[in-house]
Amino acid sequence: MSTHARRFYLQRDHDVSGVSGTGRVADGVLWPDGSASLRWRGDRPSAVHWDRFDDAEEVHGHAGATRIIWLDSESEVTL
């Protein structure tokens, strides 16, 4: 388990659901305890917190149509 938070965003190449569009659709933080917070962009922004990052990836990954782009390395994050 990491001792630092890591920032990421969701890059959607294909909008499977027809709701969130394509491009950079959400911004997020992976917390040191393995939970994740996600803030959706767009006309109807919202936020959600997942107790497990893997669950967020499973629900929003759409079988590879969405990529997780890490903004910070695993070893160090400056906030």
Descriptive account of the structure:
The mean pLDDT is 81. Strands 4-3-2-1-5 form a five-stranded antiparallel sheet, covered by helices on one side. The chain has one helix and five strands, in the order ββββαβ. The chain starts with 5 loop residues before the first strand and ends in a 9-residue tail after the last strand. 10% of the residues lie in helices and 37% in strands. The protein has one domain. A hairpin with a 6-residue loop joins strand 3 and strand 4.
Order of helices and strands: EEEEHE
Helical fraction:
10-25%
Computed over alpha carbons, the radius of gyration is 12 Å
Protein structure class: mainly beta
Shape: globular
- Largest sheet, described in full? 5 strands, antiparallel
Low-confidence stretches: none
* Relative strand content: 35-45%
| End-to-end CA span | 19 Å
Strand order of the largest sheet: 4-3-2-1-5
The overall average pLDDT, rounded, is 81
Number of helical elements: 1
